[in-house]
Design a protein that fits this description.
The chain is built from eleven helices and ten strands. The longest helix is centred in the middle third of the chain and has 18 residues. 51% of the residues are buried. It has an eight-stranded mixed β-sheet, sandwiched between helices. The chain has one domain: Rossmann fold. By secondary structure, it is of the alpha/beta class. Helix 3 crosses helix 4, helix 5 crosses helix 6 and helix 6 crosses helix 9. InterPro entries: AB_hydrolase_1, AB_hydrolase_fold.
Length: 295
């Protein structure tokens, strides 16, 4: 059963006009990658949306309504949504490869400016993919550099697990193929500041109610960004960080963001949790995205 995440958004977002999304399949490295596409040939810009842990393409489509006319491509990254991986455990590097190739593929389809939006874990994913493939602009809700112990501690359900996860997971490589519930490892209870929305995410078999391989967890917690922030010059960067994020507070992302060399802008979303659906922050999110697209 598909979860209707749009119902958790304010009325103005629910009533915004938006073309229907259609499913596409992309055969990539032996996988069948599921894409949600909102086609609008007249739209002046194209948007690639990248989810994080517990998410998938359709879950984030409500945010694309914030931008006005835009063509959208939102993949289900391997391990989530409808993407079929033939039972193979996936590494975090596979996500970066897929995202970068998808961005390059969409840039080649037409000459429209391309924006990339990364949410949660998808923020650093989008950063690395854009550093490799290029884009006209990058927007993220956070930038989590898991090389820092405090970031790993916040990302994991149990702080101690996050701090020691790298060495422990490397010692347990033999268990890489084991798939465990996402909620065992990530703080689904802090996905948003609304208990009903958190419960919906935790029940959703395509996202937070699914399973993730220990190989993905291990390779994510031991990953590094594509380039250091001082070397990032691919495009302007907008960070729209939820101001009331109980999972990954802004203080975890700001040290990395402040080091980015490219033009950058920070907008704090007032009253918003990790998955921003509250006002006035959501309206601030909408204005910031529209201004970025307008540039």
């Amino acid at each position: 059963m598909t979860v209707d995440y749009l119902r958790f958004f304010p009325r103005w977002a629910r009533e915004a006009e938006a073309p229907e999304a259609v499913s596409e399949w992309w055969h990539w490295r032996g996988m069948q990658v599921h894409l949600e596409r909102v086609s609008d040939p007249a739209a002046p810009v194209k948007l690639v949306v990248l989810h994080g842990a517990g998410g998938y393409g359709r879950m984030l489509l409500p945010y694309t309504r914030l931008m006005g006319p835009v063509e959208v491509v939102a993949p289900d990254l391997p391990g989530y949504g409808h993407t079929r991986c033939e039972g193979r455990p996936v590494e975090y590097a596979t996500w970066v490869d897929l995202a970068a190739e998808l961005i390059d593929r969409e840039r080649r389809r037409d000459g429209r400016p391309l924006l990339v939006l990364g949410a949660s874990l998808g923020g650093m994913l989008a950063y690395s993919a854009v550093a490799r493939a290029g884009a006209d602009a990058l927007a993220v809700t956070c930038l989590l550099d898991v090389r820092r112990a405090e970031v790993r501690a916040a990302a994991a359900r149990y702080g101690v697990l996050g701090r020691v996860a790298g060495p422990v997971m490397n010692a347990l490589r033999a268990a890489d193929d084991l798939r465990v519930p996402v909620r065992w490892l990530a703080r689904m209870s802090a996905m948003s500041n609304q208990a009903e929305l958190n419960a919906a995410v935790a029940r959703d078999r395509l996202g937070g109610g699914g399973r993730v391989s220990l190989r993905f967890l291990r390779t994510y917690l031991t990953s590094a960004p594509e380039v250091e922030p001082e070397a990032f010059t691919a495009c302007p960067v907008l960070m729209v960080h939820p101001a009331a994020d109980r999972w990954t507070p802004a203080g975890l992302s700001l040290p990395f963001f402040e080091r980015i060399k490219a033009d950058k802008r920070l907008v704090m979303l007032e009253g918003c949790g990790h998955m921003p659906v509250e006002e006035p922050g959501l309206s601030q999110f909408a204005r910031a995205l529209r201004e970025l697209a307008g540039r």
